[in-house]
Amino acid sequence: MTALEFGYAINNMTKSMKPFALRLTKDMEQANDLIQETVLKAFSNREKFSEGTNLKAWLFTIMKNTFITNYQRMVRRKTFIDTTENLHFINSTENIAQNSAYGSFAMADIVSQISKLDDVYKEPFMMHYRGFKYHEIAEKLEIPIGTVKNRIHIARKELKDALKIYA
């Protein structure tokens, strides 16, 4: 395949490459840049393409690999490596002391609200919280699985309403 024929074949594929590029980048300008970079790589490596194979698949593979390489490069660029020996300066502007009182109050309120639930709702809810599956709860309580799901849903809803100050 001559360079002119190869260029023409790639040009015909660029429209079908756009949706894939958009799916990868989620941005129109970045998608166009990715397509342009893909076409450039494909054209500069045209001798590696085996005639008679799927050109579209070859181009999509180049595009995916280019996207992954660019993403990894961007992540590396954003990584900060501290080379100082005085490590006590790291995060020195942030508060280090944490107060667990807020969490204690929230947990006390949650336990209080759970204890106020009707036993009909509390028992399946607590079993589900402890890791039981719906069908296991249904067997243990000898009620239909739909009833189990409904009761857990109602318990969650009541707790959400009662604890909305923590939302």
Order of helices and strands: HHHHHHH
Quickly give the structural class: mainly alpha
Instruction: Report Rg.
Output: 29 Å
Shape: elongated
| Number of E strands | 0
Number of individual domains = 2
Q: Approximately how much helix is present in the residues?
A: over 70%
Report the CATH C-level class of the largest domain.
Answer: Mainly Alpha
Task: List the uncertain runs.
Answer: none
Within CATH, the superfamily of the largest domain carries the name RNA polymerase sigma factor, region 2, helix turn helix motif
Q: CATH topology of the largest domain, which one?
A: Rna Polymerase Sigma Factor, Chain: A
Number of helices: 7
| DSSP strand content | under 5%
The major sheet is characterized as: none
For the termini, the CA-CA separation is 64 Å
InterPro entries: RNA_pol_sigma-70-like, RNA_pol_sigma-70_dom, RNA_pol_sigma70_r2, RNA_pol_sigma70_r4_t2, RNA_pol_sigma_r2, RNA_pol_sigma_r3/r4-like, WH-like_DNA-bd_sf
Pfam family, one: Sigma70_r2
Family: Belongs to the sigma-70 factor family. ECF subfamily.
GO molecular function, one term: sigma factor activity
